[in-house]
Amino acid sequence: METVKIRRHDPSGTVEIVLDRPDALNAVSTEHARALAAVGRGLAEDTTMRAVVLTSSSPKAFCVGADLKERASFTDDELRDQRPITRAAYTSILDLPVPTIAAIQGYALGGGFELALACDLIVVDDTAVLGLPEVSVGLVPGGGGTQLLARRIGWGRACDLTFTARRIDADEAYRMGIADRLVMSGQAREAALELATHIASNSPVGLRQAKRAMRLGMDGSLAAGLEIEDAAWRTAAFSADRKEGIAAFNEKRDPNWPRTGA
């Protein structure tokens, strides 16, 4: 796990996943993808976790995407064999059951941009540069970009970025709705951790069930989504968290959540 590190920020329950391959600007090699997938799978089972922040140890880049130097020597069979490994890395972030936040400074290109899109919220500082350059090198975004970007900003804007392969700066990313927070240079990690701590102060059961309902309901019919929401409401409403939350509200105090997740 040398290229992906975990930092725990207690007592908030926030977990920081640090992409730590700075010499390669966190380019996603086969081993880097394996490490990220393993970290994500492990955290998915962690019931003490309340929020996740995905950051980089490099001041120059969040992640520049696939390791094209490694791929340059691949045979077709080797590239084919790598595919499920890289897919597992992106899926492990997308499937985390708690709110997730990407903190971007510098470059977030290709698969790096897609890692950010796999998160629920994106914080960028004013050095951020984002883009999906895949079609310019004979590929298509393969880490979820063709699906997640359109869901985030709409069909036309997603087509613009995907078909032109152009890069955008932090201001444009914020205007387009890709970034949810825009902060000054060097402040993305701090701002993301502050946001995560605020989120993590809420009910662990409520957070997990709200995310579940939103994720599962977004692609179906309204009627199906409302049924998913009802199931999530029932899980939260009959939990110990709801009892503690109501008691704390009436007693004008901060809640002491009795559970860590659901």
> What is the count of structural domains?
2
**Could you give the order of strands across the largest sheet?**
1-2-3-5-7-10
Average pLDDT, all residues: 96
Helix content: 40-55%
The fourth-level CATH homologous superfamily of the largest domain is 2-enoyl-CoA Hydratase, Chain A, domain 1
DSSP, total strands: 10
Runs in which pLDDT lies below 50 for 5 or more consecutive residues are: none
Q: What pattern of helices and strands is seen along the backbone?
A: EEHEEHHEEHEEHHEHEHHHH
**Under CATH, the topology of the largest domain is which?**
2-enoyl-CoA Hydratase, Chain A, domain 1
The biggest beta sheet reads: 6 strands, mixed
Shape: globular
Could you say which structural class the secondary elements and strand pairing correspond to? alpha/beta
Radius of gyration: 19 Å
Enumerate how many helices there are, as a single number.
Answer: 11
Cα end-to-end separation:
27 Å
Beta content: 15-25%
CATH class of the largest domain: Alpha Beta
Catalytic activity: a (3S)-3-hydroxyacyl-CoA = a (2E)-enoyl-CoA + H2O; a 4-saturated-(3S)-3-hydroxyacyl-CoA = a (3E)-enoyl-CoA + H2O
Organism: Phytoactinopolyspora alkaliphila
Enzyme class: lyase
Protein name: enoyl-CoA hydratase
Short description:
This protein is α/β, with parallel strands linked by helices and 262 residues long. It contains 11 helices and 10 strands. β2, α1 and β3 form a beta-alpha-beta unit.
Q: Can you give a write-up of this model?
A:
There is one protein chain. With 262 residues, the chain is an alpha/beta fold. It folds into two domains: 4-200, Alpha-Beta Complex (2-enoyl-CoA Hydratase, Chain A, domain 1); 204-250. The protein is built from eleven helices and ten strands. The strands form two sheets. It has a six-stranded mixed sheet, with helices on both faces. It has a four-stranded mixed sheet with strand order 4-6-8-9. A hairpin with a 4-residue loop joins strand 1 and strand 2 (14-19). Helix 4 crosses helix 5. It is globular and about 60 Å long. The model has no long low-confidence stretch (mean pLDDT 96).
